[in-house]
Specification:
Helix content is 63%, strand content 14%. The protein is α+β, with helices and mostly antiparallel strands and 294 residues long.
Length: 294
Amino acid sequence: FNEFSRDRVLFTKENLEQLVGHRTQELKKLNATLSQSEKMFRLLAENSLDIIWKMDKRLIFTYVSPAIKKITDYHPDECIGMSLVNFTERKEFFKIARRAISLFESNDFNRTSIFISHLIKRNGEKIPVEISSKALTDEHNNVIGIQGATRHISERLEYELLLTEKNKMLKTWNQELEIAKTKAEESDQLKTMFLNNLSHEIRTPMNGIIGFTEFLAKVDLAPEKRKHYAGIVTKSSKKLMHIIEDILEVSTLQTNQAIRMDFEFDLNGLFEKLYFRYSKIAAEKNLGFKKSVD
């Protein structure tokens, strides 16, 4: 029995030595991997333009990358052991603390919290930053703190503000273009209506001129009729002349060639002339035409 027990103890000892040796090799490999990962992390962190940091669960800095010197004028070494409250206002500190607690209590350790806040530089200046953070865990997935990156975003906010202003300007320009387009379409419609009406207005006196000119060409035409026809031709010619003048005036206005002239004139007298001119035309067409001057 004693001999069997001794062999069993030796056998167990050999197994333990093998197991310890195997575990030792695994730990060495794991330590080498961790060491390589730590070197890679520090290489990236120390060359990043963003502030890379780690804090414990009390929001005390345990690591801060060199970028903090350029952004806040604090040296990385003096930040170690300092609380986040030293770098921001109390209101912002409590807001960040609530987010940190939310990350600590989350079961999703890959969850990232991204938000806009601000830091206070050594000289007291407040600068806008974007903070990206997630829970920091140990090898047993126990939450031991929080880690993340802080980016200075003053230039980005300026560009965003400029972009917002440009978008507002573009929106205003688009609205103005839409109004101009509507006016142009209305102008084209009015122009089409004007030309259609003008075609009729030109034909009427032109037909009178052509028709009664042919009557005047007759040799045996009585003097009274000749005089009457000549009057119609004269009247139609004047009417046609007024239409042509109107066309030229519209063309001058559309091409911005009209010259403004400032002078005093009799407004009532102008209305009288217009009334005298168009009342005859209205009477010929059996249309009512009245004037009212206050």
